[in-house]
Design a protein that fits this description.
This protein is mainly alpha-helical and 88 residues long. It has one domain. Helices cover 74% and strands 0% of the residues. The longest helix is centred in the first third of the chain and has 23 residues. The mean pLDDT is 86.
């Protein structure tokens, strides 16, 4: 019998990390006085981190062949570069 890629503990810890990052995003966007030019970069970095956690664990890209990971990361990097180019 095959072992599952992830366990309930893994899913729970990833969920808790996602919740903590979401709270951090809310705190930064609403309550933390941060320079207006820096805020989008910080929020984008948090969003990319959350997207990577979801893709790696909930979409099981961490356990699939590397080509699937590349097909996810290359457009993500392109979109990130585009957002930075447009906002700066």
């Amino acid at each position: 019998m095959d072992r599952p890629h992830t366990t309930l503990v893994t899913y729970t810890s990833v969920f808790l990390w996602l919740a903590a990052l979401t709270l951090l995003e809310i705190g930064i966007s609403q309550y933390v006085p941060i320079a207006p030019r820096v805020r989008p970069a910080v929020l984008l970095a948090l969003a990319v981190t959350k997207a990577a956690l979801v893709a790696l664990y909930y979409m099981h890209l961490k356990f699939d062949r590397r080509i699937f990971l590349a097909l996810f990361i290359v457009p993500l990097l392109g979109a990130t570069g585009f957002i930075f180019a447009v906002t700066h």
